[in-house]
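Database export, one record per block. Field names are fixed; values are copied verbatim from the stored entry.
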Amino acid sequence: MSSDSIDPSLLRKNAHSPSFFALKRASAGRLDLVDFCIPCNPYFPTPEMFAQLSGTLEQILKYYPSDADTITAELCATLGLNPQTVVMGNGSTELITWIDHLLVTESLATPIPTFGRWTDQPMETGKRVDMFQLHELRNFEFEVDPFVQFVRQRGSRVAVICNPNNPDGGYVPRHEVIRMLDHLIDLDLVVVDESFLDFVDAEAYTSVADEARIRPNVIVLKSLGKNFGLHGIRFGYLVANPALAKTIRAALPKWNLNSFAEVVVFLLREHREEYRESLRLLARDRMLMTQQLASLPGLKVFPSQGNFVMIKLPDGKDGVGLRDYLIEHHGVFVRECGNKLGSTSQFLRLVVRPQNDVQRLLVGLGSYLYNSTMPSTPAEPVLAPVNGLNGVNGMNGTPVNGMEMVNGMNPVNGVDMLSPMDMVNGMDRVNGREPVNGMDPINAMSSDSYNGGAGQNGYNGASDSTPYSTVAELRSYLSSNVVPGQGDGANGGGSGSDRYGRFEPVQEARPA
């Protein structure tokens, strides 16, 4: 690895991470840069889908796309949504911009750390941003009641949460999000940014997009680029009641989507199974990567339901130095979180990637943190079994609790890199369950039961607050006994839930 292959000063020129293209241009032709910074889906689109796209490249570049209404209608037909409740944008950030311009008049409250556009965008237009600090000692867990109290104390008129949150990957169970919406029905607007929700496997029924369609002040934001691993195609969408959606749609250009977005949207219908499989594989990789990182001495790993994992470096270690070292000596690009409000440079967000890439990351981390003499080119990865299967993709593996070495490397400072553990930072592992849990990969919805634990019923409408007589539709909806697709706990039998509202199933886990 050449130490001068990439100039680290490129990483410090602005608040946001440089683009992958900027790094490639600065890498003197280097072809093996591994990106742990940009949250991609490494398994979707498939090589076959990319071949299809390549075959239509000339037409994509030469011809105008259809108007936004046509593309939106196709997306809604695929997802089972009403086009009157959906607005597509040239990336979710375009929609965030218009939400701010049109619907945020005074102030906005949001937890921090979180996605930077939710703090930066309203500040850039002169709004007051009320920042609700999430605490490291509680694993950056979001709690509804303290947040609602904070909103009331500050007099905020708009509230925003990301679920899962970026950069820590914390997930708020659906029934808790609905409870928050109930408490904040008098605000001008409540936004639930579900850009990473498809990666959640904590419960089968996750999205509150169905709630947004009938509530007077709720928007749910989605990012197709993040879900599908296609950040270069700027396309996202929001779901809201028809009147609210119409307000935003009227402000957008008629041709705000490009031809790449149109072609991909029309491809989705025939490739839903491949997308479903990509989520399963990514959940498996997240579990393995979390276990491996948590075994590094002094490194704290926060539980995540996104396609990324946040870590805290040992005391005395700084993320800026580590970032520069990894990209110079190992060709690994990571996201240091020092410029995120509510965070410091001791925290890093690492994208979930396949094991070959993770081994390269582990080598670099061990070398920097512990001055170990690990080889720069890792050997074939030694993997923990997943749901009873040895290894990954047909490779033989060694059980986690029997491992003393990773890739033939000596343990770091006498500690096994994959040490025997049943918990990750005090949190349950993925509990040996099949990662995606049978959920519909698009909108992260399923008709499967909730698998509620003994003595704990599924959410049954407005159980935590009084229905609001001012909205007849809302009152009717929330007074129903059970949310569609959720059971009353009869199918469960687990012994309690973890921070994600996930319950241990009675039945034996299925193979991955």
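Remark 1: The longest strand covers residues 107-112.
Remark 2: The longest helix spans residues 272-294.
End of record.
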